[in-house]
Amino acid sequence: MQGTGKTSVAFEPDTAAGAVLAGTAKAVGSGRHKRFLLGLAGFIFTLAFTFLGLLAITFFIGRVVPIDPVLAVVGDRAPKAVYEAARIELGLDKPLIVQFFNYIGSVLRGDLGMSVSTGKLVADDLKRVFPATLEMATIGIIIGVLLGVPMGVYAASRQGSLVDQAIRVVGLLGYAVPAFWLGLVGLALFYAQLKWVGGPGRVDIFYDGLVQPVTGLILIDSLIAGERDIFFNALWHLALPASVLGFFSLAYIARMTRSFMLDQMAQEYVTTARVKGVPERLVIWRHAFRPILVPLITVIGLSYAGLLEGSVMIETIFSWPGIGNYLTTALLNADMNAVLGATLVIGAVFIGINKLSDVLYRVLDPRAR
Amino acid sequence: MAASLRAWLVDDSPSSRLQARLGRAWRIAGALSRNPLAVVGTVIILALVLTAIFAPLLATHDPLKQDLTQRLLAPSAANWMGTDELGRDIWSRVVYGARITLVIVTMVAVLAAPAGLIIGALAGYFGGWPDRILMGITDIFLSLPKLILALALVAALGPGIENAVIAIAITTWPGYARIARAETLTFKNSEFISAIRLQGASSLRVVLGHVLPLCTSSMIVRVTLDMAGIILTAAGLGFIGLGAQPPLPEWGAMIARGRSFILDQWWVATMPGFAIIVVSLGFCFLGDGLRDVLDPKSGEQH
């Protein structure tokens, strides 16, 4: 399979955590129940440890910034006494480790500070923008799975053929094409020239704000409100950005599926099935494909997490009011609370999906138990 | 003459270290040349390096010279890739941009690979608590989204090429640390390492002189495969406006400038994108080929 080297980066944290889990489980190893509980404890421990690491990194980045947080509050013409008072009020006179614990405390309470550019609480801002990103990434992963898996299986079943080569190149393009460039070219071609899809934004301007947000997912909200026109308009606008994300997920999923399938088809039981005279289609879908479902779940999980991250690059292009747009706007305004808050949320979701697909793998694959 | 040189290179019992090394290089080059994609990759990377070196000869215009009477011209015989909104020749800017890209990927590789190599080798060689602490940190970095981390780091450090390189290197080293650790574990208890230790070599000497050199081939494969990702991240930072600053002809930043004209003057944003794709694909092809030759156990057997 091409490009395994890179994809394995994403796997490594999981295998590492897995090794730890397997180790603790094996060491005690008496009784299924106990092992399960220990595994669960180990899992929660690594998850907590990783989250703590994420917090440490955002805290550290927040401290490195050359912007003085006190000046941001009092302004640079404040007298020294006011400055000192504000410094003490912000807790910046305390030792770093105390500040770190204070930071963890406030994050756990959901307090991510105030955004300088929007003038609102970062936590509220993030709650408002996150559904838009989630909606785009979810449609993207659906496209990726529906196209990527059959492509990978087909390529493996016709190994070396022209179609196989073409699918391999598509897979590699997923590593070589900048997402923001593909978004721009897509806009120029499919929106401006061909008019197949809607332009930037989640809906046309005259539909904007007509639907009462319930879930924040405009496809679902418009259905709840019974607005069919808005639903189709939103779908029309979603088509291009979701397809761009879907392309990257498709490339990755097709490549991994192909490689898993080739591994299976080299197995002796597949040869046995063929010798028995099982039709090739059944050999592929029943014998070779079923065992790869479990590792595929991990791949799909990783790809989904990757799309949430990838949306950061393309949301500005599509004026998509999601977390990526929020983050890039904050970056350009040096709005550190918003930057760190968005980093924290994307990081936490990324870690969560990663570890969850790892657990699913462990639960579903009898060999990994 | 050529035949005897060849015989000397492929000699099964080389009489000097130089002969052994050259012979190995010869065999690797031979194996690579039988892989068509690897050849394409090598040609692309060579072209990138040559373009960067000979940029003044290849460029038809001054990449920074503005000429508002010549703005937003379509590709033509005079301006092969057209001109941008300030009348600068896009072909010349793409050519000079090769220098920036090459500097970025080289700097990231030079910073991240040795750091990861040393951390991983130390963790693997000593085991125990050093291993747990180092790998704990490595795993945290590995499970974070790289791009977001790089963005937040550059936001803190400030925009610019140097800071972009530092941020990308910070997100890249953990992968190398994992490889180096895994490789070290496979060698750690082998007899030749025991022999060196019995001769009284210090741990530092064993790690630096005997463990690290054995990790290099898998490291080279991995770094080459990572190059595409590094280029995309650097271009992404440039696109957002946090990487190379104007008027530098960085490819990502050039795409960002062409954004406003994408509907009518498509070439402004599209052309630098092609450069990114070609170079990234080149590294992918070469990395794949190198892996098949240098590190066959980690790649596909098919």
Automatic annotation (TrEMBL), chain A:
GO cellular component terms, A-Z: plasma membrane
Membrane topology recorded in Swiss-Prot or TrEMBL: Multi-pass membrane protein
Subcellular location: Cell membrane
Entry annotated with the keyword Transferase: no
Protein name per the record: Peptide ABC transporter permease
Membrane-spanning segments: 36-61, 136-157, 169-192, 234-254, 292-314, 334-353
A molecular function GO annotation: dipeptide transmembrane transporter activity
UniProtKB keywords: Cell membrane, Membrane, Transmembrane, Transmembrane helix, Transport
Family: Belongs to the binding-protein-dependent transport system permease family.
Highest taxon above the source species: Bacteria
Chief site of localization: membrane
Automatic annotation (TrEMBL), chain B:
Main location per the UniProt record: membrane
InterPro entries per UniProt: BP-dependent_transpt_permease, MetI-like, MetI-like_sf, OppC_N
Name of one Pfam family that matches: OppC_N
Transmembrane domains' residue ranges: 37-59, 100-127, 147-171, 227-246, 266-287
Regions annotated as coiled coil: none
Single GO BP term: peptide transport
Record GO cellular component, one term: plasma membrane
Mode of membrane association: Multi-pass membrane protein
Subcellular location(s) per record: Cell membrane
Keywords from the named record: Cell membrane, Membrane, Peptide transport, Protein transport, Transmembrane, Transmembrane helix, Transport
Superkingdom classification of source: Bacteria
Domain ABC transmembrane type-1 span(s) in chain numbering: 98-287
Gene3D superfamilies to which the protein is assigned, alphabetical: MetI-like
Annotated SUPFAM superfamilies: MetI-like (SSF161098)
Signal peptide interval: none
Alphabetical list of PANTHER family matching this protein: D,D-DIPEPTIDE TRANSPORT SYSTEM PERMEASE PROTEIN DDPC-RELATED (PTHR43386:SF1), OLIGOPEPTIDE TRANSPORT SYSTEM PERMEASE PROTEIN APPC (PTHR43386)
Family under the similarity heading: Belongs to the binding-protein-dependent transport system permease family.
Protein name per its UniProtKB record: D-ala-D-ala transporter subunit
UniProt source species: Pseudaminobacter soli (ex Li et al. 2025)
